Amino acid sequence: MAAPLPVITFSRILNKNVLGFLRCGCRHASASAVSSNKKWQLHSAVCLQRYPRVIKPPTDLEQKYKEIMGRIELRKSLLSDYELDLVAEKHMFEKMKTMTDDEKKKLLAERSLLTMAEQLDVWTKELDNFKLADKLTDADKTGDETTVNQKLDEKLVLIVRQNWPGSETKCWTFPQGCRREGESMREAAERTLMTCCGEDVDAMFVGNAPCGYYQYQLPFRCKPDYGVKTFFFKANYTAGEVMPTDLISEWKWVRYDELPSYFQSTYLRRVRQFLIPS
Fold it and tell me: How does DSSP classify residue 241?
C-alpha cells in the first residue's frame, strides 16, 4: 500500500507550482492594468541641425596627403587647353622668324586674340583683385550664440529653454510641443518648430518616423497626466533666423560636443543615440 505515495507527493508539488504561477500571473495582470490606466502626454521635439557651410582647415596629415596626390595627378595628367595653346603659340612664333613682314602682318591680323602671356597677365590681375571672405564672422568675434551665422565650419544644433505653464524649472532641451488631437507626430513637430522659433526659420524634416524617444514623469500637481512621452524628429536647417516667441526664454546654436554642458544626463543619453557627430 506504500506504492502510491510518490504519486501523491508529486501531485501536491505540481498543484503548488501551478497555484504559484497563477498568483504571479494575476499580480502581473493587475500591474499591467494599473500601468495602462496612466495618462501620458504625447510630445514632438525637433532636432534642428545646421550643417557646416565651409570646410575645416586640413590637418597636417590631410595636407601631406593632398600634396602627394597633387604631384601624382600632375604627373599623370594631360595638357590643359591653355597649355596646348601655349605650345601652339610657341610654334607659331618660331615659324614667324622665317616669314616676310607681309606674311607676319597677315598672320597677326587673322589672330585677333591676346597672346597666352597677355592672357596670363589678365588672369593674374583678376586673382589679385579677388578677396577671400573671412571664415570668422562678427558673431564669432562677439561670442553671439543666438545666431546661425557662426562657427561656419562646424555642425550646430538648436537648443532652447521653454516656458512651461506652472513650472519654474527651465531646462535646456530641443524645441518641444504637445501633440494636438488629429495631428500626426510629424505635423506636431512642424508646428512646434514654427510656434517656438517663428515663421522665419525654414527647415527640411528628415522622414515621417521619429528618430528617438524619451519619457519622464510629471509632478503630482499635473494630475491626471502621469507623464510625457517625447518623440524626436530630425530636421535640416535651410534658411532664416530664430524669432523667439513667448514659448521660449533662451536659445542657442551649439556644437554636439557642447551638449553635455546644457542637457541633463538622462536626456543626453537618449539624444546621443541618434546624433551623428561631424
Answer: -
